[in-house]
Automatic annotation (TrEMBL):
Residues 14-324 form the DUS-like FMN-binding domain. This is tRNA-dihydrouridine synthase. Gene3D superfamilies: Aldolase class I, Putative flavin oxidoreducatase, domain 2. Its cofactor is FMN. The active site is at residue 115. It is an enzyme of class 1 (oxidoreductase). CDD domains: DUS_like_FMN (cd02801). GO terms for molecular function: flavin adenine dinucleotide binding; tRNA binding; tRNA dihydrouridine synthase activity. It catalyses: a 5,6-dihydrouridine in tRNA + NADP(+) = a uridine in tRNA + NADPH + H(+); a 5,6-dihydrouridine in tRNA + NAD(+) = a uridine in tRNA + NADH + H(+). Keywords: Flavoprotein, FMN, NADP, Nucleotide-binding, Oxidoreductase, RNA-binding, tRNA processing, tRNA-binding. FMN binds at residues 84, 154, 182, 242-243. Catalyzes the synthesis of 5,6-dihydrouridine (D), a modified base found in the D-loop of most tRNAs, via the reduction of the C5-C6 double bond in target uridines.
Length: 331
């Protein structure tokens, strides 16, 4: 069954993010989400070039790792997990899609045509494909031919300038099941405000050209309620959350209005445990430090604890820093 055909509307998803949405963080988000409030999760960006390289394959495939504990939660909460892939060679998309379908438990595949990072774009990948519509179509067709997994694309409203009408119309004529539109052009990176009026224009094009394709909006959604309002105002089928999760890791549990110190630290410790158990020394521990500011805010002594945590080098040091802070807090 193609889950895009019967996914709830409005739906909510956590965006694919480099060095963020690995299996350990996805599990933390799943645990904190209320039933029915989170519908889709995405992997980190996975390079098709790396996946197809005889040496690079083993260095890249960890991005597609799914822990058994995450699989259990995905099933319990009826959340679909999608692998996001990027590159510029249609044949390598074909091979990578086959690997995902045959060797992993992902529910779908998403093609990255939106990442604005300059060293990626200069190689003709991701948002650079907006300026290469024929190649973009070849990539979609090759991926579709490789597997029966549901297929989606994440993109922007333009490369150097806004080209929503021509670009989205082009994508809507390809065999995709869903399209996520980020309301900025590549040139903006993450600067300025996302243009939801252009996303609404994409919805109108979808309604006219391919009403069966789901259309997801992305950009500057900072609360669940705001997401619902965006769906109502702009006509999207759902919203994708990116940086909003850093402001509130309980984003997908909107009924939680006040979160105390103990609950925040418990989540941080659980994330640390999962990261350590999953990756050990195979990943740089410094990756985990970027998350500490998510959990250490708005309680007495938070900044002091945060400073201590930023100097930790392993999980044991995190546990000890929290233990000392907790003891001192209750003196």
């Amino acid at each position: 069954m193609n889950f895009w055909h019967n996914i709830q509307t409005p739906n909510f998803s956590l965006a694919p993010m480099e060095d963020v949405t690995d299996t350990s963080f996805r599990e933390v988000v799943l645990k904190s989400a209320a039933s029915g409030k989170l519908n889709l999760l995405f992997s980190e960006f996975t390079s098709v070039e790396g996946m197809c390289h005889p040496v690079g394959h083993d260095k890249v495939k960890h991005r597609l790792q799914i822990n058994e504990s995450e699989k259990k939660l995905l099933k319990e909460k009826n959340v679909k997990l999608i692998a996001q892939i990027w590159g510029k060679d249609p044949e390598k998309y074909y091979k990578t899609a086959q690997y995902i379908a045959n060797e992993t438990d992902f529910d779908g595949i998403d093609i990255n045509m939106g990442c604005p990072v300059k060293n990626v774009v200069k190689n003709g990948c991701c948002s650079a494909l907006i300026a290469q519509p024929d190649l973009a179509k070849e990539i979609i067709l090759a991926t579709k031919e490789a597997t029966n997994l549901p297929l989606s694309v994440k993109t922007r409203i333009g490369f150097k300038e806004v080209v929503t009408e021509s670009w989205v119309s082009h994508l809507l004529q390809t065999p995709i099941d869903a399209l996520t539109i980020h309301g900025r052009i590549q040139k903006q990176m993450s600067e300025g405000l996302a243009d939801w009026n252009e996303i609404a224009k994409a919805v109108q094009l979808r309604n006219k050209l391919a009403p069966h394709i789901k259309l997801i909006g992305n950009g500057d959604v900072e609360s669940y309620q705001e997401g619902l309002e965006k769906c109502e105002t702009y006509g999207v089928d759902g919203v994708m959350i990116g940086r909003g999760i850093f402001k509130n890791p309980w984003f997908f549990h909107p009924e939680k209005k006040e979160i105390g110190m103990e609950e925040k630290l418990d989540m941080m410790l659980e994330h640390t445990r999962l990261f350590d158990k999953t990756w050990g020394n195979s990943k740089n521990f410094a990756i985990l430090r970027r998350f500490f500011k998510i959990y250490t805010n708005e309680f007495r002594g938070a900044s002091s604890l945060r400073n201590d945590l930023m100097n930790t080098r392993n999980a044991e040091e995190v546990y000890e820093a929290v233990r000392k802070f907790t003891v001192n807090s209750y003196k």
